[in-house]
Amino acid sequence: MAAYTALISLMHIIDDIETHPSPPISLDKQQVESLTEIVTFLQEFLQGYESPYAYSDEADPLEICIIDATHAAEDVIESYIIDTIQLSAAATTDDGGDEQISCIHFYQDLQNVIEEMDLIKKEVIMITREKQEQLRNLASNDAGLISHEKEEERNAVSNDAGKRSSTTEKKHLVVGFDDVLLQLLDRLTDANTNLQIIPVVWGWVVSAKLLLQKEGPRAVWIRKNWN
Q1: 53, 83, 189, 207: which could join 60 in a potential S-S bond, CB 3.0 to 4.6 Å?
Q2: 201 to each of 40, 180, 183, 186, 204, how far by Cα in Å?
Q3: pTM as predicted
Q4: From the CB of residue 176, how many other CB atoms can be counted at a distance below 10 Å?
Q5: What pLDDT tens digit does each residue of the chain (227 aa) get?
Q6: CA-CA distance, 65 to 3, in Å (whole number)?
Q7: Domain ranges in the chain?
Q8: Which are the contacts of 187, defined by CB distance < 8 A and separation ≥ 6?
Q9: DSSP code for 56
């Protein structure tokens, strides 16, 4: 990634100046700290950055901004180094006034570049926040979908349980009628020839109808003798 490489190059220049035993120029400590913090932040961002232009022939505008600002910072520093060397070479005929003016211009130019890179940093922060918000919304939608699916599963289980319960009740109801049928059959076919009064309730009426539809021997006897 060209933007990441440009940031590394800028940090090498700063490190070389800061660690050199006799640096050609002196950098303002506060400016160095600000520039280093911004460059480090952008490097960390680019390490996990997925450019929307990754599979396109078009260049990423954000990466272009980072490259341009980084090259601008390098140009300011390198130009000041060259100016300082030239002024040092002509020190025997120059009183140093131009060097002081060049130094003022250098710090101002470098500050302008730092402010430009800081604007890029703020833009990156906004992009990161928007990405995080999208991920939170996506996670929330996924959670809602999962919750809906679980609710449907619970409803399906409840419906199945209700159907099984209804089927069980019907089976119990049939068993109840069978008991009544057997009791009625025993009363009608016992050896007692005395007149009997059999209490009839709705369940017994239904059982009697079911009994007379059967073709068994006792059913035939009942139809013959109890008409």
Answers
A1: 53
A2: 93, 10, 13, 17, 5
A3: 0.58
A4: 12
A5: 799 999 999 999 999 999 999 888 889 999 999 999 999 999 999 998 988 888 888 999 999 999 999 999 999 999 999 888 887 777 655 554 444 546 888 999 999 999 999 999 999 999 999 888 888 888 777 666 676 667 777 777 666 666 665 555 455 444 455 565 566 556 655 655 555 555 555 454 555 555 555 545 655 555 566 55
A6: 9
A7: 2-149, 170-225
A8: 196, 198
A9: S
Topology of the domain covering 2-149: 1.20.5
Report the C-alpha gap between 161 and 148 in whole angstroms. Answer: 20
Tokens 């131009």, residue located: 98
Residue with tokens 């918000």, as numbered in its chain: 133
Site of tokens 């400016």: 31
Contact indicator for 181, 210 with CB cutoff of 8 Å:
yes
With tokens 């833009």, the residue in question is 123
